[in-house]
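Input record (one chain):
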Amino acid sequence: MTDRPALLIMQRHLAPLTPFLEGAYTVYRFWEGPPVEAQADIRALVVAGEFPLDKHLIEALPNLQLIACFTSGYDGIDVEWCKARGLPVTHAPGVNHEDVADQAIGLILAARRQIAAGDRGLRAGGWTAESRMITPSLKDQTVGIVGLGAIGEAVARRAEALRLKVRWWGPREKEAPWARSASVLDLAKESDILMVACRADESNRGLISKDVIEALGPHGLLVNVARGQLVDETALIAALKDGRLGQAALDVYEEEPTPAARWADVPNTVLTPHTGGATTEAVQGMLMLLIQNLAASFAGEPLKTPVAD
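The corresponding structure, as predicted from the sequence alone:
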């Protein structure tokens, strides 16, 4: 093993991190096929936390000492499995939740006020003297927030400023100024807009099921800024096509990048390419935490932001 710690960046879209890391570390990129002789040198994996990790790969790296998530979320990481092997996991909490909440509100506005559709219509020559787009007001509509964590609370504060009524549901009680529904199904029934903002894991895959989607109804709007796996995407598309759901505004998908053809004939949608937390300031904050966690690990010091559970 060399004196210069080696890192393995796992996902191709994290390649821009390379110049910020290679001054202090030897950097390998998984998609380029690192040489076999590098296995003993690699001491940390740099990952996007939503992607599942190959446990066989981890077991093939004898000197691995850290899984460093560039992101806040780490739902693709089996933290308990790592912990049982003495392998800590770090992430970037508290950096981009306000930005994700901004995106969530933007999706509500774009969908309910038909902003994206209006833009497309105008550019296509659809604005005439006789035409007039009429959209519903947000005033007194109810937004039901699934998951009242940092993102959910930030969305709720913004929603109130837009004159929306706020309800929420989460698996655990917590003190909050907004009413908690008895279940996610009840929340959907009580809401005009259902906002998915909860943490994802294997226990809640498909939480927003066909029944929940249908409970939201033909005038309802589903917004997802959390993880694509939380929503039964096939059921969602079917409900949009036959009118059992009014609208959907999505920033995350079951498969990413999502195939464009999957959405080509799906009506009443606003779609963004998982950009909710991707602001310049947030990326800088995540990079800083990544660098601090790597430095602490290799210096034998306490990690800056270890995953607690």
